[in-house]
Amino acid sequence: MTDRKKLLRYFAYTIEIIVIYLLNETPGLIPPVFGARPVLLLPVAVSIAVFESETAAIGFGLFCGILLDFGMSGGASIGFHTLLLCILCYCAALMAIHLLRASLLSALLLSTVAVALILLLQWLFYYVFSGYEYPGFALVSHFLPRFVYTLLSVPLIYAFNRAFALNIRESAG
């Protein structure tokens, strides 16, 4: 019975990731704020990692990372987001299991670290190291609004995944 619940949860997470990806990539659906659009798959991956095992967290981080690699960069840097999200989701799951309780505060903290790290590395590799003329301007005008806009979605995504994870675990028990 537990395997069926786990498979149902994983299937639902997969559907959630695909729907969020499609919503995020549909032009004009999510309005830009200060010219930036959120990266909703980052808090989704971290939020799932908070409720699942390390292995499942790596798997969903891998899936979200692949979608981000194809969506954000047009396939130009395959593996960048995939590798980062696998590592970050693994660490988030370990921390949620051994150090933190699964709560909105811990999900917000872990999402803040993950989003900040990924966006900072994007900025470094795509603007600073590639010789962009005004990397500071890109950081303030593009990456900072994207960071804030992405973090605004964390409570809603966490609440959805929390309710979902707890309902499936309790429904068959």
From TrEMBL:
Membrane topology: Multi-pass membrane protein
Annotated TM spans: 7-23, 29-51, 56-72, 78-100, 107-127, 147-168
A GO BP entry: regulation of cell shape
GO cellular component, one term: plasma membrane
InterPro entries recorded: Cell_shape_determining_MreD
UniProt KW Cell membrane keyword: yes
Keyword Secreted: no
Major subcellular site: membrane
Compartments, as annotated in UniProt: Cell membrane
Keywords, alphabetical: Cell membrane, Cell shape, Membrane, Transmembrane, Transmembrane helix
Family named by the database record: Belongs to the MreD family.
Protein name: Rod shape-determining protein MreD
